[in-house]
Design a protein that fits this description.
- By secondary structure, the chain is α+β, with helices and mostly antiparallel strands.
- Among the domains are: about 5-55, no CATH class; about 130-210, Thrombin, subunit H, CATH 2.40.10.
- About 20% of the residues lie in helices and about 25% in strands.
- The chain has three helices and 13 strands; from the N terminus they run αββααβββββββββββ.
- The chain has helices spanning about 5-20, 35-50, 55; strands at about 20-25, 30, 130-135, 140-145, 150-155, 160, 165, 165, 175-180, 185-190, 195-200, 205, 210.
- Strands 8, 9, 10, 11, 12 and 13 form a six-stranded mixed beta sheet that branches. Strands 3, 4, 5, 6 and 7 form a five-stranded antiparallel beta sheet that branches.
- β4 (about 140-145) and β5 form a beta hairpin.
- The longest helix has 18 residues, at about 5-20.
- It is rod-shaped, with a radius of gyration of 67 Å.
């Protein structure tokens, strides 16, 4: 007799005791007349019967099993880079990224050096034969002992290249004492007090005349 059969038998007897009170079988009398005891025994009997018939009342449930399969796909070789020769393994340990290594020094070979180019400074009135100096508008004018007239236009704070006035000569006589400009006219004053002039048209001196 296995355990479940035993539990089933005891459970039936206890249920009968709980219902009837006393059960007599082959000179064996089992039971009690106490209502509380009968209730407890009846409940125990139902429990034994339930355990014995658990396989019938509650059929065993099958536990689902899950099978995890991993499909490993072999890499498809690239026909353009595939080679039958295995690549050699490098045995040189790789340094961490923050480890400083020798930094190659790149030395420039043909380095273009830019030097600012400046125009040579313009000079005027430095020759020993320069005699008179004056202004004509924004132009500096110098007159030599030979009567030649030269000028340099002033733009901002910069002298432009020197040019020579064409036309008549003025201020070359030994008795010439003062020279100035009057509008667009060069004026010469001699030691005798005579006053001569030459009108300027463009960069050309017109014939010399005497003021009256």
């Amino acid at each position: 007799m296995d355990l479940k059969t035993t539990l089933l038998t005891l459970g039936v007897i206890l249920i009968l005791v709980g219902l009837i009170g006393q059960v007599k079988a082959k000179e064996i009398e089992v039971g009690t007349k106490n209502p509380l005891a009968r209730l407890v025994l009846g409940l125990i009997g139902f429990a034994f019967v339930g355990v014995a018939l658990s396989d019938v009342i509650l059929p065993p449930t099958s536990t689902p099993t899950f099978t995890l399969t991993t499909e490993i796909k072999a890499p498809i070789p690239n026909p353009t880079t595939a080679t039958d020769t295995p690549l050699p393994l490098s045995l040189t340990p790789r340094l961490p990224m923050d480890t400083p290594t020798d930094t190659p020094t790149i030395s420039p070979t043909n380095t273009a050096t830019w030097m600012p180019t400046s125009q040579p400074r313009v000079k005027i009135g430095y020759n020993s034969i320069d005699r008179f100096m004056m202004t004509l508008g924004n132009t500096l004018v110098v007159v030599t002992q030979d009567g030649d007239v030269f000028g340099s236009e002033v733009v901002g704070h910069q002298l432009q290249p020197v040019f020579q006035f064409s036309g008549a000569k003025i201020g070359y006589n030994s008795i010439d004492r003062f020279m100035m400009t009057l509008g667009n006219t060069f004026v010469m004053v001699t030691q005798d007090g005579d006053v001569f002039g030459s009108d300027i048209v463009g960069n050309q001196l017109q014939p010399v005349f005497q003021f009256k």
